[in-house]
Design a protein that fits this description.
Layout lengths: L5 H9 L10 E9 L2 E7 L3 E6 L6 H11 L15 E9 L6 H6 L7 E9 L4 E5 L2 E3 L1 H11 E4 L10 H12 L2 H33 L1 H13 L6 H13 L1 H16 L5 H14 L8 H27 L4 H21 L4 H19 L1 H45 L8 E12 L2 E10 L7 E2 H4 L2 H16 L6 E5 L7 H16 L3 E5 L3 H4 L4 E10 L2 E8 L2 H13 L5 H13 L1
Parallel strand pairs: 3-13, 3-14, 8-12, 12-13
Antiparallel strand pairs: 1-2, 1-4, 4-5, 5-6, 6-7, 9-10, 10-11, 14-15
């Protein structure tokens, strides 16, 4: 069989004969995945079964589906000698209201969904939804809404409190109240953090209160002013070089204003001489004006230099004052590890706020504590409402579980949900425990501690059947959930799975029991065969005659007797 492109395959699949019932997992295509060369198979609504000898490759089919549900890829999954493997599944989701997911992720939607995963020999993989490349997280998010694969290890969920609580929540349909509670819980957590932060800060501040007050006193006493350090440093430079400054000013003034040899007299002479010829030589009139301006400017500079000489004088007391102030600033900067007066001012203000917090800390703590207590009261009130809804649903779960477990070979079953209270948590204040007893004389105990393997399988199947009616999940796959049961109990388990499939849901069971295999609407077989290139695993839908022989072999072993054939036919007639 040749492999066609995803878009071509999509047109081909969509063109198949429609069914009045919703088909969830419509088609599965696998190429070069571990022992599978190529698998191209249709699936149908209601209840189907998959059988095959141990080691035939049923787990390989599940492994391929797990990849489509976002599981991590491994280069070992690529068939030896191939460059890449491809897994593609087509789902009919037209009745499941998943439009929002496709809109939010900008993916085409037409009621049909194709998931595709490609893994190359290096282990790198790509994921696609309706031919659109997507992150693996998006594929995982969608996959969780499409398929639930229940394998044997999932029976361990019965040991987990959060799983048990989630069952109650599903039956309670309490999402709206859980949202109200979570909002109140988050508000309480925020108020609690604010109070605890304040307590911690207040305690730390009180431990250092004396030192904080001493530091603030030093900085406050210094009467710091922004920009004063630069001004003082300039004053220090000036006062330290008074003689040098006076000498420079004197010499500069003398060079300008000394009679006869000074620049001023020379400019005056030049200006007068040029001015005298302007009448007879108008071309120098502008130059005459410039010389006059230069003379006036130079005279102003000479007057300013003389004024500066008179103003500046050595004042040792002022220099001492400036030096003392700078010494104080430098000392404070070194002690507080800052580089400027502005940073010292910032530290002073911070210390002031810290001391104010200490002085008013009790009032602030009291206010924050009141906020926290009020938030806790609101949270606990919402938790109480949630608990009431859950306890009402728990009664329904208890009654339903008894009804479901009695036909499964536990006639004297007792099933109860025990509620205990804990502190507020993201899921509420409820701790729940599923209690179980297979007979009337034994005390109720946690189901994971007292139930046998077969009983746990029946409990999990009953729970799945119970919650599947409340959760819109298109496809449920049971991987050998019948472990530890046989005979009439197996028949009852098969009836439950078939009933689940009749409720507009697709149920597929991988089984070793003929009682279950006989009740499937469609029967698939997984087998291995040897080829020139090695072992390959195959899966195909059985014809009615092939199905009789497969169930007969499951009943009687490798030798298929006529009695086994008749028994198989009887089982199939019962279905």
């Amino acid at each position: 069989m040749t492999f066609s492109s995803p878009s071509t395959r999509r047109r081909t699949i969509s063109g198949r004969k429609s069914n009045s019932e919703p088909i969830m997992l419509k088609h599965l295509y696998i190429k070069n995945f571990t022992l599978i060369d190529e698998l191209d198979i249709d699936f149908y609504p209601a209840f189907s079964v998959i059988t095959g000898e141990t080691g035939a490759g049923k787990s390989i089919i599940l492994g391929a589906l797990h990849l489509l549900l976002g599981q991590r890829a491994d280069s070992k999954q690529v068939k030896s000698g191939s460059t890449k493997c491809i897994i593609e599944a087509t789902f009919d989701i037209s009745r499941y209201g998943m439009n929002d997911f496709f809109t939010a992720h900008d993916i085409d939607y037409d009621g049909e969904c194709i998931l595709r995963r490609e893994v190359n020999a290096s282990g790198k993989s790509r994921a696609f939804i309706n031919d659109t490349p997507v992150p693996l997280t998006d594929m995982r998010e969608l996959g969780e809404q499409l398929v639930d694969i229940h394998s044997q290890h999932q029976n361990l969920l019965l040991q987990k409190e959060d799983f048990q609580l989630s069952v109650v929540d599903i039956i309670a349909a309490d999402s709206e109240q859980r949202a109200c509670y979570l909002k109140a819980y988050q508000a309480y957590q925020a108020a609690k953090k604010a109070y605890e932060d304040c307590v911690r800060q207040t305690e730390q501040s009180k431990e250092n209160e004396e030192y904080l007050r001493f530091q603030y006193s030093e900085l406050e006493k210094a009467q710091l002013q922004e920009g004063e350090q630069a001004d003082l440093e300039q004053q220090q430079q000036t006062l330290s070089h008074v003689e040098e400054i006076k000498s420079a000013l004197y010499e500069a003034n003398g060079a300008i204003a000394t009679e006869e040899s000074g620049i001023l007299d020379q400019l005056r002479l030049a200006s007068d001489r040029v001015s005298e010829i302007t009448a007879v030589y108008p071309e120098v009139k502008e130059l005459s004006g410039r010389l006059e301006s230069a003379y006036i400017e130079m005279k102003d500079m000479a007057d300013e230099l003389e004024r500066r000489m008179e103003l500046i004088d050595f004042d040792p007391e002022e220099l001492n004052r400036v030096n003392a102030r700078l010494d104080l600033l430098y000392s404070l900067e070194q002690r507080f590890h800052f580089a400027s007066v502005e940073e010292l001012i910032g530290e002073r203000d911070r210390l002031k706020d810290a001391i104010s917090a200490i002085d008013g800390g009790d009032d602030r703590l009291a206010a924050l504590r009141l906020d926290m207590e009020q938030a806790y009261a609101r949270c606990f009130d919402e938790a109480g409402k949630l608990t009431a809804i859950r306890k009402k649903a728990a009664v329904v779960v208890e009654e339903e579980m008894k009804k479901r477990l009695v036909p499964l070979g536990i006639p004297h079953v007792r099933f109860s949900i025990d509620f205990t209270t804990r502190d507020c948590s993201p899921s509420g204040v409820d701790k729940v425990s599923f209690l179980f007893s297979a007979n009337s004389s034994s005390p109720l105990q946690p189901v994971s501690q007292v139930a046998s393997g077969g009983e746990i399988a029946r409990v999990m199947l009953s729970l799945k059947a119970l919650i599947s009616g409340a959760v819109k999940l298109p496809t449920i796959i049971f991987d050998e959930i019948d472990t530890g049961v046989s005979g009439r109990v197996a028949e009852q388990m098969a009836q439950i799975m078939r009933e689940m499939g009749d409720q507009h849901r697709q149920v597929i069971s991988i089984t070793h029991l003929p009682q279950i295999a006989a009740l499937g609407s469609h029967h698939y077989k997984v087998s291995k065969r040897e080829t020139e290139t090695g072992t390959v695993s195959e899966m195909r839908e059985l014809t009615p005659d092939e199905r009789v022989r497969e169930i007969a072999q499951m009943l009687g072993g490798s030798y298929i007797s006529q009695a086994a054939i008749e028994n198989a036919r009887n089982l199939l007639k019962l279905s």
